[in-house]
Specification:
Length: 487
């Protein structure tokens, strides 16, 4: 089998992979690279998710790239995001580097050859494919696109209606005039419920426990004002990004220091859209603000549906499914023609690819992470895993700069490989789970924590989830620190 060789191989043509390609060709223009994408087109999440109303839950001034001004409303639809990404690809001739329908199955590092061998399959033709590269840049995301997470409730086979997970939405699903039950109360629910409410007979949201929502107008007054002054869009993009990030930093700090005050502020914002006598226990979580991701609700649309009588919130737990719906532990039965399981996704560690180093299988749960992007014992590889409290792309950009600087540094040193290693002062460092669960504890992470790399108790050995610190720390990383072992 003929193998093409590239200096850098990027896995995934989603928001991280496309951004990585931009950084690589602008900062390391002499490096050859290819992007392998398992789907038939670019976009990742924004292509695979087809449920009604699909939109971002981060503002596009920070979720968009720092190098490409965003000129639309802060919260964008999937189509708008795909259009934006398409412009980035076209304007920078990235399309010539992307190989679609390339599904990777194995990645093997050889110390003798100082390179990776990547093997996979063409999903459109079934033929085997193989590549070699010096550096592997994992931008494939962090969850399985093919199947969302649905708990195994008792009696599901008894239900005579249709069960649908939003991640695998049927194109022909007809919900007009139907009674719909949506299980879950996160960002997906906040998106799909208002999009369906007008056409359904009624839609009920069943939640085991409430989520914090933050309703705001889907406009940015600063951007609109600057446009009236005829300010260049590049400047507007940067100014608005800085303002949003400043406000988010302040909010995060307050959520940690004054959680009760932040809680009251969030609940007050929700209550403005609801009747005066509405039971706010449905929107009062058990956890403090920011222990799980906030669900942004543009213009309060889900609450307007509740106020109009088109949607209902129920806080209870499922005893079992019945022929007509679900029986709750309270004894009430919720009947529905269609049940949506907006119950999250299945975490996917490094694309579920079979990794090996010198013919030895790699179990990432046995590695320790360097700043949530490199792993002990795994040379010449970086993984993009973004932020929970800030836009994913912010970290993708920081990592892009780091990778390019690292590659340039290796060239100057005349070396072929690098890996993160524990230093003598790290010998007694405790090995902890990937994320501090007291600080952030979404269910999808708790379900899969055993699959993820370990972290230490020092900033360089953890994914701090702190953009406001990392934006200064990453550019200052000393590449000749003993933590980097070169060959």
């Amino acid at each position: 089998m003929d193998r093409e060789h590239f200096d850098v191989l990027i896995v995934g043509a989603g928001i991280s992979g496309v951004g990585g390609a931009y950084h690589l060709q602008t900062q390391c223009p002499d490096k050859s690279f290819v992007i392998l994408e398992g789907l038939e087109t670019f976009g990742g999440t924004w292509w695979t998710h087809k449920y009604p109303g699909i939109r971002s839950d981060s503002d596009l001034f920070t979720f968009g790239y720092r190098f490409k001004p965003w000129i639309g409303a802060p919260i964008a639809t999937a189509d708008e995001i795909l259009s934006y990404m398409g412009e980035v690809i076209e304007e920078n001739s990235i399309d010539q580097h992307i190989r679609y329908n390339h599904w990777i199955t194995r990645a093997a590092w050889s110390t003798e050859d100082q390179r990776w061998t990547i093997e996979g399959e063409r999903k459109d033709t079934g033929e085997s494919v193989s590549f070699t590269c010096n550096f592997l840049w994992m931008c494939q995301g962090y969850y399985k696109h093919s199947q969302g997470f649905t708990p195994d409730w008792e009696g599901m086979n008894d239900y005579e209606g249709q069960i649908v997970h939003p991640q695998t939405w049927p194109e022909d699903l007809d919900y007009k005039g139907k009674n719909v039950l949506c299980i879950g109360s996160g960002a997906t629910t906040a998106t799909v419920v208002p999009a369906m409410a007008a056409d359904c007979e009624h839609i009920t949201v069943l939640q085991r426990s409430p989520t914090y929502f933050t309703p705001q107008k889907n406009i940015n007054e600063t951007a609109d004002h600057l446009r009236k002054l005829k300010i260049d869009e590049t400047w507007i993009h940067e100014i608005v990004r800085r303002e949003i990030l400043h406000n988010q930093e302040e909010f995060t700090r307050l959520a940690l220091e004054q959680p009760e005050a932040v809680k009251e502020e969030l609940l007050a914002a929700v209550s403005e859209y609801l009747p005066d006598d509405y039971d706010m226990s449905h929107f009062t979580p058990r956890y403090r603000p920011w222990q799980q991701r906030l669900a942004f609700v543009p213009d309060g649309d889900i609450f307007k549906g509740i106020a109009a009588g088109k949607a209902t919130m129920v806080t209870d737990e499922i005893e079992r499914f019945t022929k007509q719906g679900v029986l709750l532990k309270s004894g009430n039965e919720l009947k529905a023609d269609i049940i949506l399981t907006a119950t999250g996704f299945n975490l996917c560690v490094l694309g579920d690819i079979e990794f090996s180093v010198d013919d030895q299988p790699v179990d990432f749960a046995d590695t320790i992470t360097y700043r949530g992007m490199m792993f002990t014992g795994v040379p010449n590889m970086v993984w993009v895993f973004g932020y929970f409290r800030a836009s994913w792309t912010l970290r993708a950009d920081l990592i892009g700069d780091f990778v390019c600087r690292l590659i340039q540094h290796m060239d100057k040193k005349g070396v072929h490989s690098v890996q993160a290693v524990l230093r003598p002062e790290d010998d007694d460092m405790p090995q902890l789970c990937w994320i501090d669960q007291d600080n952030f504890n979404p269910n999808y992470l708790q379900r899969s924590m055993h699959l993820l790399p370990k972290r230490g108790n020092k900033p360089e050995w953890m994914h701090t989830q702190d953009y406001w610190k990392e934006k200064d720390d990453f550019p200052a990383i000393e590449l000749d620190d003993p933590i980097f072992a070169y060959r």
